[in-house]
Amino acid sequence: MMGRNTVYLVDDEPSILRAISRLLRDEGLDVRTFESPSDFLDSHDPQTPGCLVLDVSMPGLSGLELQRELSARGSLLPIIFLTGRGDIPASVKAMKQGRLIS
């Protein structure tokens, strides 16, 4: 399926990965799941188009730290954050670290 965008889903909760990936696949999207930001970084090809659906809070490298690392690498991959434990400061930090696409 070359040329199709991929939704990269990173979350440390297997049940969340299964549920969201099933929902996205049912809509006809290509989905690749990762249980940690490190797993994603180890296998992600920056030339593959898509977007990243990312949990904010994970053990080890957090979602915000992954966002910062991708930005440092020059990635333009759009990120959608998910969290069950969100707060306003984390939301503001995510928005400030991101880029607006026009």
Short description:
With 102 residues, this protein is an alpha/beta fold. It has 4 helices and 4 strands.
Q: Class by helix and strand content?
A: alpha/beta
- How would you spell out the order of helices and strands? EHEHEHEH
> How many strands in all?
4
What fraction of residues sit in β-strands? 15-25%
Give the N-terminus to C-terminus distance in angstroms.
27 Å
Radius of gyration from CA coordinates: 13 Å
Average pLDDT level: 83
Q: What is the count of DSSP helices, taking H or I runs of 4+ residues?
A: 4
* Poorly predicted residue ranges: none
Main sheet overview: 4 strands, parallel
**Helix content percent band:** 25-40%
Strand order of the largest sheet: 2-1-3-4
Shape: globular
Task: Tell me what the structure shows.
The chain has helices at 14-26, 37-43, 63-72, 88-97; strands at 6-10, 30-34, 50-55, 79-82. A 4-stranded parallel beta sheet has the order 2-1-3-4. Helix 3 runs parallel beside helix 4. With 102 residues, the protein is an alpha/beta fold. It has a domain at 9-35 and 49-59 and 67-84. The longest helix has 13 residues, at 14-26. The model has no long low-confidence stretch (mean pLDDT 83).
